[in-house]
Amino acid sequence: MTIEAVILNTIRKTYKNDDAPKHQLYSKILKALFRYETDQKPVQYASQAALAQAKKMNINLKEMNWNNQTKVDPGRKIFHYEHCNPINTLIDAVLTGDMDVTNILNNNIVCWILKSENKKLDEAHCKSKRDGGWEKCYRECGIEPVKIN
């Protein structure tokens, strides 16, 4: 079992739904953990549009992550490091016990998209909630994800 899974299981065991201060604390811890966890592995997806833009710029999105993005995209103006499943959804899954911890970690995936595509997600109210799943939301917003790893 990974250290991330141990942390998620520990939080799940000690969480009580009616404890607002603990909910706030655990949410902050989980948000940091999910962001850290995605930064430790290669990005799994990129949109067709992001791949086309990266090709024009001679950038390999497989090698780009949040930490090194500004070397090729100063100010993060072109590409958006998008969590396919919103972090709040993953946090809720941990705290409600609705999903196995391994599945939660497997659903912590990111996709390089363009800022213009991210705007479409926001306009479609898909920023923090993805009814029907991330793939459906992307399809409805005209975003075509491709597995790159």
Brief overview, please?
With about 150 residues, the protein is α+β, with helices and mostly antiparallel strands.
Structure description:
There is one protein chain. This protein has 149 residues and is of the alpha+beta class. The chain is built from seven helices and four strands; from the N terminus they run ααβαβααβααβ. A four-stranded mixed beta sheet has the order 2-3-1-4. The longest helix has 20 residues. The radius of gyration is 16 Å and the shape is globular. The two termini are 23 Å apart. The mean pLDDT is 93.
Question: Rounded to an integer, what's the Rg over CA atoms?
Answer: 16 Å
- Average pLDDT confidence is 93
The total count of strands amounts to 4
| Estimated share of beta-strand residues | 5-15%
Q: Determine the fraction of residues in helical runs and give it as a percent range.
A: 40-55%
What would the principal axes of the Cα set say about the shape? globular
Number of DSSP helices?
7
Strand order of the largest sheet: 2-3-1-4
Distance between the termini: 23 Å
Largest sheet: 4 strands, mixed
User: Low-confidence parts, pLDDT < 50 over ≥5 residues?
Assistant: none
